[in-house]
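Quick one: structure for this chain?
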Amino acid sequence: MEEKEYGFIKEGKVFRKAFLDYADKEIGEVKETEEAAVLYYTERFALAQTKVNEVEEKINGTENKGSYLMKVLHLKETLCDFDAIGDFEALYHKLDLLEEQLNGFIHQNRLKNLEIKTALLAELEEAVKSSEWKSATAEVKEVQRRWIKTGAVDDAEKERIEGGFKVMLDGFFERRAAFYADLEKMMKDKESNYQEFIDGAEKLKEIESYTVLVEKIRTLKEEWKDLGRIKAEVRTEFWNKFQVIIKSALAKAKKEGKAKVGNKKENLESRTEFLKELIVLNEKIAPVANVKELRDKWKYLGPVSRSEMDKLQGDFLFLIDQIAEKQFIESLMYKKLKGKQNEADKERVRLKIAYDLLHRDRAELSTFQENLEKFNTSSGLDKLIGGKLELQERKVKVKEEILRQFKAGA
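Got it. Here's what it folds into:
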C-alpha cells in the first residue's frame, strides 16, 4: 500500500484519507501507474478549491451576503463526496468560517429588519384607524409595499411581528369592504328617490306659462343636488332623462307662448315686474343667478308695443350685462385669491379687476370710434357698425356702473 498525505492506494484502488467526521473513501482505481492515479486525483482537488473560492469571492463582493448561506451549506453537504485528493479539512474550515460570518451578518440584518418592521407596524396601526378610505388605503398599501421589501426577522419574532401585521391588514380591508358594501346598498336604495324625482319632473310638461316653468325647473335643479349619492353612471342616466323632460317641457311652453298673443298690458306688467326683480338682484356685489335662464325668461314674457319694448329692452340689457359681468369678476377674483377669504382682499381685488376691465373697454371703444371714418357705410354696413358701437358703449357704461357700486360698497 502506497500512502500519501491526503490519500493512499490499496489493492489497486485509490482512496481519500479520512478527515474531520468523514471516513476513508474509495474514489477510483489505478488504471496505469499508482503515481499517475494519485496525480490525477490530486489535480482534481483544484476544482473543489475553485468552487469554495468562487463562493468566498461572491460573498465578499456583494451587500446581500445572506443570500449565499444556502450555497455554503450545500457545499458543506456535498463537498465530502467530491472525488479528489487534497486538504479537504482546510476547505471545510473555510466553509465553517464563511457560514459563521454569514450567520452573523444575517442575525444583524434581521435585527435591523425587526427594527424597521416594528416601526412599520406602528405606522400601520395609525393608518388603519382612519375612515377616510381612499387616503387610508393608499397609506396602508404604501406601508405594505415597504413591509414586503423589508427582509425576514428572526424565527423567535416572526410569528409575533408577521402575525400582528396580517391581523391589522386583514382587519382594515375587511372593514373597508364592509363600508363599501353598505355604501353600495345605500346608493341602490337611493335610486328609488331618483326615480320618484323623474316621475315628478314629468309634470313640467303640464305647465303652460314659460315664466312659471323656468322657475319650477330652477327649483327642481336645486332639489336634484340633495337627492343623495348613487353610482356615477346611474346618476348620469337619471340626469339625461331629466334633461330630456326639461327640453320637451320648454319646447312645448315656447310653442304655446308663440301661439298666444296675450294681453299686452299684462305683458308690460310682467316685464316691468321682472325688471324690478333684476334691479334687486343687481344690488348684490356677487349676484347668484343663471343668466341664461334669466335671458330665456325675458324672451318669452310676451309682446308689448314697439316703443315700450325699446325702453324695456335697453333697461334689461343694462341690468343683465351687469349681473353677468359681476359673476365674471367674482370668478376672476377667486382665481387670483386662490381660496383666501379675507373680505378686505376681496374688495381690493374686485376693484382692481373692475378698473382693468373698464380701462380695456374704454380703449376698445376709443379705437373703434377713431376707425369709424374708415368704414364705407354706403356698402350697407351702417346698421352693423351702429350696433357694434352701441354694444361697445354699453360695455363701458356697464363697467362704470359696476365700479360705482363696488366703490359705494367698499
